[in-house]
Specification:
The chain is an all-alpha fold. Helices cover 66% and strands 0% of the residues.
């Protein structure tokens, strides 16, 4: 699940100032997952996989990101369970087979439809087609990595403060 979240972060730049919940009304193109299957996808015929949300997902490099994430996922699985090392090629095959781009592309298109209006997706497409937009796509992994490192350092620098605050809370 952590890697799916990473994929979403890397392929869907989030604007911190926009913390609105998804719209209550979904577009007619949005397919609801059956109850109890929040992450389920509905098969969408190939001829319907051509809207601006699909173009956006492709433009953001989702397919390449997924390939990298699949490899990181496999490496992490093997690192945490060394008994899998002799079967790493099998785990790689499993990741390629069951964490497929076609399915993930549909998931991401649905996510964009759920959170953005068609006009907003069009505006993002205009931006990401510019030199600055393409640069932001290329730099997003580094920006996220550096931001993550900065957050970890801040937490480490103030670990003693947390311990003190927890002691105070426990004493109350």
């Amino acid at each position: 699940m952590r890697y799916l979240i990473l994929f979403l972060l890397l392929t869907a730049p989030i604007h911190a100032q926009s913390q609105q919940p998804p719209p209550a009304e979904k577009s007619a193109a949005t397919k609801e997952a059956p109850a109890g299957q929040a992450g389920a996808t509905t098969a969408v015929p190939e001829e319907q996989r051509t809207g601006p949300e699909y173009e956006l997902v492709d433009l953001l490099g989702g397919k390449d990101q997924l390939a990298r994430i699949q490899q990181q996922f496999v490496d992490a699985m093997v690192a945490t369970n060394p008994a899998l090392e002799p079967y790493k090629s099998t785990v790689n095959e499993w990741a390629r087979r069951y964490i497929s781009w076609d399915e993930m592309r549909e998931v991401m298109a649905r996510v964009y439809r759920d959170y953005f209006k068609a006009g907003e997706i069009d505006e993002m497409l205009v931006f990401y087609r510019t030199a600055t937009g393409r640069k932001s796509i290329l730099l997003m992994p580094a920006l996220l990595r550096e931001g993550n490192q900065a957050g970890k350092k801040m937490a480490q620098d103030h670990r003693a403060d947390l311990v003190e605050m927890l002691r105070e809370a426990q004493d109350k």
